[in-house]
UniProtKB/TrEMBL annotation:
It is found in: Cell membrane. Residues 136-164 are annotated as: Disordered. The gene is mscL. Its main location: membrane. Homopentamer. Pfam families: MscL. The keyword Ion transport applies. It comes from Pseudokineococcus marinus. This is Large-conductance mechanosensitive channel. Keywords: Cell membrane, Ion channel, Ion transport, Membrane, Transmembrane, Transmembrane helix, Transport.
Amino acid sequence: MLSGFKDFILRGNVIDLAIAVVIGAAFTAIVTAISTDVFGNLIAAIFDAQEIGQLGVDIPSRTGDGATKIVFGTTIAAALNFLIVAAVLYFLVVVPMNRLLALRKQGAEPDVAAPSEDILLLQEIRDLLAAQRAAGAAGPGGAGGDTDAAGGAGPAGQRGPDLP
């Protein structure tokens, strides 16, 4: 049972996926720091707040007890974080991959595969039968004589079924 688990873990795809998760977590930490510390502080300064997490709107209470604060700064920070990650992935992964696929398409013209021997043989048989049928129709009597499909006379001189 443990050998199967060991084989599963040591497969290349699982290790590649684990490495991608670790790198993604580190990348997310970097992007979060940039979005909150750099861009978040710029946005907070524009709206006269200490940090982006404090951005919000005070809604006065009907009873006059105080105000309810709706904080949307963390939502702005999360959206900013998402946009940065999406932009980096687009420009570092999607654009180069599209260029690579376009170059592959230009370089590789689709080759028309040659027909197999079976197909060639069947085409030759079809052509011979068509030629035989055309020669038989042009012969005396116009119907090709009293022969069946195998070339022999049928019972009472009748022809056999026509082959396509």
